[in-house]
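Section: Multi-chain targets

For targets with more than one molecule, the full set of components is provided together so that the structure can be written out for the assembly as a whole rather than chain by chain. Components appear in the order listed by the source. The example entry contains two components.
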Amino acid sequence: MNSTSPIGQPLPRVDGRLKVTGQAKYAAEFEIPGLLHGSVVNSTIARGRVRRIDTTAAEAVAGVVLVLTHENRPPVASYDEPYQDDDAADGSPFRPLYNDRVLYSGQPLALVVAESLELARYAGSLVRIEYDVEPHQTDLAAVREQAHPAPEEVPSRGDFEAAYRGAPLQIDHEYGTPIEHHNPMEPHASTVHYQPGDELIIHDKTQGVQNCMRYVEGVFGLEGKVQVHSPFVGGAFGSGLRPQYQLPLAVMAALKLKRSVRVVLKRQQMFTFGYRPRTLQRLAIGFSPNGRLEALHHGSLGQTSRFEDFTEHEVEWSGALYACDNVQLEYRLGSLDVYTPIDMRAPGAAIGVYALEAAMDEVAYAAAIDPLQLRLRNYTEINGNQGKPYSSKELCACYEQGAERFGWSRRPLEARSMRDGHELIGWGMATGVWEAMQMPASAKACLAADGRLIVSSATADIGTGTYTVMTQIAASALGLPMDRVEFRLGDSRFAQAPLEGGSATVSSVGSAVHQACVGLREKILDAAQQSPASPFTGASLDDVAFEDGELVLKREPARRVPLTQLIQTSGTLEAEASVKPGDEREKYATGTHSAIFVEVRVDEALGTVRVTRVVSAVAAGKVINPKTAASQILGGVVWGIGMALHEETWTDHRLGRYMNHNLAEYHVPVNADIHDIDVFFVEEQDSVVNDLGSKGVGEIGIVGVAAAVANAIYHATGKRVRDLPITPDKLL
Amino acid sequence: MNPFSYARPASVDDAVKLAGPDARFIAGGTNLLDLMKENVLRPRQLIDITHLPLREVAASGNGGLRVGALVSNADLAWHPEVEARYPLLSQAILAGASGQLRNMATTGGNLLQRTRCWYFYDTGTPCNKREPGSGCGARDGVNRMNAILGASDACVAVHPSDMCVALAALKATVHVQGRQGAREIAFADFHRLPGDEPQRDNVLADDELITAIELPAEGFATHYRYLKVRERASYAFALVSVAVALEMDGDTVRQAHVALGGVAHKPWRREEAEALLVGQRADDTHFAAAADALLAGAQPLAYNAFKVELARRAIIRALDEAARGVTR
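Its structure, encoded as tokens over all components, is:
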């Protein structure tokens, strides 16, 4: 990487113009002549059987082509395996329109297909469904006693019970987090372009085109006949990690009618599949008067469906983040008549670290220690779960620089010590942590005849900036200006890529892109050496540089050939690379870390909270693009504020049904809720995580924010609200 | 959305001739279209009134202001006469919805907003307001946003408007026209409590169209406050809201109008509560007495007991700020 390398530059998004001019097409925007439109009819009961579906009135509507139900759908696989996608939970995946069983309220029971969306929706309102209703249970708190261990090993160490009993000071509290739904701006949609011979070209909203391709091929027996495209995704946050039901429904209709079909979910239906599970968590901590942790128990009860056991890393963070010799972790699941949860932004960490960091704040007050000092006192460079050192962990720099920017040293220790008129002011902080994963990935690099570099991989850009950072990595590797490089993604025919999730795309796909470009360097040098009078004869890759679109002999920089000239004689050059995590990673724990400092103002009489200042200091290795990375963190912080104060899906447990399923009543922060947010990255060198030294920033931004807000509210008011969200009624 | 016919009458007379139980007038459509898309309302005919000459804001005979039914919420909030003489109304309008919605929504339509009760909106659940006789899902359901005052066994919905709370405190008059002619309805009499007929939000007959809202001469431009408590800073319906209009003589209250939003099927006023303030010192003792009288008999539900105390505190705060002239 030379001095003009685009890596580390805060470049604007390469796809920005396409997006703001409406040229970026999303799954529901692909027009096909003769396209039909499907509208889904969902169950109104939570458990039972469909006794009868009366579709006569719907079918009588002019323009309605088909009403698809479990009784007339095309054949589908009868074993679980084809349904088990790359992100499947343990168990037996949901099969849309498979039989008459109703497993949850909102389950798709029919698809009305018509000449227009409006007709399909109207006809859907005429479908009459009779049920045999069975008793249901949707309340996690009601099944505490029946909960079972999660199918996931959680590490423990030392002797918690004895150490807790022997500790001079103890806290023991329960923390609750509600169901949350992803609600990306773009609803889930699939447009199935039917080709003769049951070949399907599918435009789907997804975080994994190859995952959806395999799913459709397997469920419908269409091996080798399916392409899935997803060039642009209007937000997903995890909701696109698994194929959602609109995809198989659209495919069923297309196969049955041998026509192209589109199915778009409406906002209310965005509450009828995966979500962040409700949890009830217990933190019991024994500690010394100087705040050292002696014993720590973190138990979580999460909800899941009756057909799958959804697991995520909720409690492990408590065994990793601080030094403590006696750690007991426990993770149980309660099965309910609901759909299976799915990963949502920092799955597990967002809620598990909330509970841990809120509990740490309680320890700080009990020991009368500044909350930041408490974290420093229990600092460790070792991940205690694994007994391994971190490949890098600049969390101390986050604490120090974040505290400095925030002005933390001026914080009075006592709660309720700052006031301005009707408002109490409080300052709180928390730590954030996420994994730095890498997964096997491939990419292909191609130097085209016009001298442009085309790099591709079957990954996704869910608004995170994948297009931009991959272009930067490729441009840097071959010394090309950004505008001569094009990165392509979202096509199942491209080189293998993992699901776009877990903050692992730069680490995984970015490494493959880099490696493919390194492979292309060899091909280019080889091509340059073909002519008899080549100045590069005998040169190795170490002897040459790729600069400003030219191949340069390092010892005689005047000897240089433009790549555009080389390609004239050589023809198109290509290289493909597959990259796996390096063996060196095995010796280390890897992670990203952050420190969050928050100021709140609480109108005590009315219970309203304003988050007036946030400082988020992040350590995530080498940041490829500080602009898109900071946007990721900003979005995470905003979501963390929403998690602390606003977000909650309410269930009517008598009906077993979500009741605030629209964006007027399901509250996320609006602009007026968001004030000053200061995001920055600290320097962090890491040669272990991958060749780029980059860790990914999709998740870390949200982790810890809700705890910092809750802790600031305690500092302001002296009230400890442990059940999120902290709405006005809880502060009265 | 069900099939419907569409008409665009040229006059108010023509409009009311077309009206009937299966027809709906449409102006801004900010609520009606949503309800049609969700299949909550299924009118057979839409009568587009947007071309009727009802967009004027003009002085009324008695020194007040007459606001045409089609004046947009945004235009009304920012109208110089309203800002200067009825700032309570401006404040209330701007506390509601969003800029885009206020640009489309009309004065008359604001009065006719349907409740935001979660059960009314979800056709998969029972609701007496949507389908009379089907039962009330909210009474024993998730009723956090529902009524604490004036509800019935059949319905615990609340009226969602902010503007109407201010109009109640300002004692506006609603002008309507039907096939039998025009009539005036005092604002307090316009919306109704649910009783046994929760499907009826107000006293309008099927053939009646709101043509104007008339504001009285007294606008309480010095001592007023619209205080809305909600779960986020914008674009959320009120947990509770309070509109206060006071006439002060030094520290003494000469005239007091107080209306609550978010607590009942209509903007909630009680003259006996207001009377407790008149002639009294503007202090917390009298404010609390008025608040208690206004909230007397409150019957909270499983999830909304907090509203009683929250409303009490909000009333005291709003009265205090109005009396001191803290307008914000």
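The longest helix of chain A spans residues 505-528.
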